[in-house]
Amino acid sequence: MSEKSSLQDTVEQRLRLYLEANQLRQTKERFAILRAAYDIEGTFTIEDLQKKMQEERFPVSTGTLYQTTQILVQANLLIRHPFSSSSTVFERIADNRPRSYQICNNCHRITRIRSKELATSLETYHPRSFAVSYRIVYVYGTCATCQRIMHKRLKTK
Description:
Strand 2 and strand 3 (89-92) form a beta hairpin. Helix 3 (46-55) packs across helix 4. This protein folds into 2 domains: 1-94, Winged helix-like DNA-binding domain superfamily/Winged helix DNA-binding domain (Arc Repressor Mutant, subunit A, Orthogonal Bundle); 96-157, Ferric-uptake regulator, C-terminal dimerisarion domain (Dna Ligase, domain 1). By secondary structure, the protein is an alpha+beta fold. The strands form 2 sheets. Strands 1-3-2 form a 3-stranded antiparallel β-sheet. A 3-stranded mixed β-sheet has the order 5-4-6, covered by helices on one side. The chain has helices spanning 3-21, 28-39, 46-55, 62-74, 116-124, 144-156, and strands at residues 43-44, 78-81, 89-92, 99-104, 110-112, 136-141.
């Protein structure tokens, strides 16, 4: 069994258990949306997910996508990031590895921080009396491009 199909089986089982525990219907749309979300690497929006569903020849309404992503967030299968962009941004929770992002306050560009030191620090942090589901760090500031633009504007004044 491949790693991808093993992951898919695991998350589908987690969704099945969540739906049963909350007396929600197990629809083919919910499982198709889950599979599509887990096929997308990194972060994605509802629009990205809708495109993916159309590529899979399984179009669903935007309302169904919003309702299902809400269920997937509640089932701890997706993360809804609190980025200050116009679209809601999601990411799958495929594992317990830490995630860290830097977000520019000016242009709102989001980039992944790839730091072994930060990842190690997050992995070794074990708070007492608290069961960690996943670890995420958001660092807000000004990106180099926006800093250059601001510096040029200051020089011309």
